[in-house]
Amino acid sequence: MQLDSPRSSPPSNVRLQKFLAECGVGSRRSCEHLITAGHVSVDGRPVLTLGAKVDPARQSVAVKGRPVSPGKKVYILLNKPKGVLCTSSDPRRRVTFKDILPELPQRVFTVGRLDRDSEGLILVTNDGLLAQRLSHPRYGARKTYHVMVESPLKPGDERRMLRGIVSGGERLQVLNVKRLKPGTSCSIYEIVLGEGRNRHIRRIFESLGRDVRSLRRVAIGPLSAGSLKPGDFRLLKASELTRLKEYAGLIE
Description:
With 252 residues, the chain is of the alpha+beta class.
């Protein structure tokens, strides 16, 4: 599989967590967790301070003893089927997204997650900065879902979803909700989220007395599944990547 962009050289004296994200270790938040947990070393010495800076041209950085450096970026659009996990590995040996993809030289991860029983669009990449912009609630990147339930919501339920519903001590909100194909035997709703908490949509519908029969993500910002069937994947086109980075605020 051909990669998307050439190797880049990071500037000197960058924050350690930013450098790790540029190396594809993970999102900036996950890199911060690695630092505070003592898994990151610079020139052989553990670094626990989030404000620490590193000069990649002169210093060596390792995560859990393995050296890291910026590499070529890869951006893959995958239509995740039901029954597939978004984690890189599973101790119970269940199928993960990496089992669907060909072997890659880069360490890749998914941007956001879909639970095992959900399906739809996920972005697989080693671009930690882009992942941060698309995943962190601060940036409000929109993700669109189609949700099937057995019966329609009651009057006022959609307003409750927009205002926010408390579940497990968390306020869960949607940015938009619209019923699709009214009059059919089942009820399908289009839901737009600006952040995604654990089982966000399922918990909202459960709070409203509705069991979710199927949940499918159909768009991530400007990206849509298009003709990708469950289990299919492809590299992002250059024009798609440009639009996605513009959407994420990484291109002025």
